[in-house]
Amino acid sequence: MVEMAERIKKLPPYLFAEIDRLKEDVAKKGVDIIDLGVGDPDIPTPTEIIDAAKEALYDAKNHQYPSYVGMYEFREATARWYKSRFGVDINPTDEVVSLIGSKEGIAHLPLAFINPGDYALIPDPGYPVYPVSVMFVGGESYRMPLKKENNFLPDLSSIPEDVLKKTKLMFIGYPNNPTSAVAEKDFYKDVVELAKKYDFIVASDNAYSEICYDGYKPISFLEIEGAKDVGIEFHSLSKTFNMTGWRIGFAVGNREVINGLGKVKTNIDSGIFQAVQVAGIYALNNSEKLNEPIRKIFQDRKDKMTKALSRGSFEFDEPKATFYFWVKVPNGYTSAEFTKKLLEEKGIVVTPGNGFGDVGEGYFRISITNPRIEEAVERIQSAI
Ligand SMILES: *Cc1c(COP(=O)(O)O)cnc(C)c1O
Known about the structure:
Blueprint: H1 6-9, H2 15-28, E1 34-35, H3 47-57, H4 72-86, E2 96-99, H5 102-113, E3 119-124, H6 129-136, E4 140-145, H7 161-166, E5 167-172, H8 185-198, E6 201-205, H9 227-230, E7 231-236, H10 237-240, E8 249-253, H11 255-268, H12 274-285, H13 287-311, E9 324-328, H14 335-346, E10 348-349, E11 351-352, E12 363-367, H15 373-382
Helix pairs in contact: 3-12, 4-12, 5-6, 5-11, 13-15
Bound molecules: pyridoxal-5'-phosphate (PLP).
């Protein structure tokens, strides 16, 4: 008999896998499905980025093992981009590590810094990778509720003192998946202060900084004075340039934290395929030009979704950033009941809020990574 390790037995069911199974059943019945579930852009990677990779593919030096921290030119491009976009100084020599998608770095970080029994502060609802990576190394998660009355920011003053004393790491992520909330300097200042007081690492997940609307520009955690003393920021080319399949991201910030993450990587994986890094360098060096048309498409969808949901009877905040609408489930349903009903009766895939944590119960997440916005909302409305 093959027996799974305890850490695998402890895993919550992977949300998207279950939805996929149900989706398949519905599709078999011939239903025309509109998928507003996963946050994976439906638009191709810009051709110029593909061309940069294509040329690099033929260069034999790119066929060998890449360095785990990333090509110096790639690290330099990330540092230059952080400077021009956020005004943050990053030393490409020791304050950057390349990642095979930021999910990889997020999942590996606790291996470097959490001992069994140590605590990590995790947002709830939140990206499921945070608590799983902590559980895998024997750490404990303290879930910080993200509630509407706090603009979906954690209430730092409500975290118990005894938890803070055992805390080694805090995950935060704004612009936020799944709530689409954003964070400003005041919040990050409080985070830096708390991290200094209780001596823990802050890991800021900034995957959505370039998916923003109506002239709003998300900031970086590292813009705050002292932030680099306590933390790092994860970034990814996935959402910014429609490159989810390429697997390219990076972390920047505190050199000791970057070094710890690098130690894990050296021992268990390699760097990003160099042809992909060459494409990444091109993308970062031409960020404004390449991202603008992408942002326009999502801006248009965001406006359409806002209008369509407002015509109906839905409770939500209009997003300033991200692909997501975080919408209240109609009265009388749980998140799971309502999303199942939408899929089975209307062929609409959305994500139940409780899949991101218990505090997400009562919400569902709509992703605008599908152009069929009005049609989808009509079907959702007709389900109520
Ligand atoms: C999409 C996403 C990422 C980026 O994942 P990659 O591994 O870089 O593709 C990171 N964090 C959150 C919250 C995300 O939604």
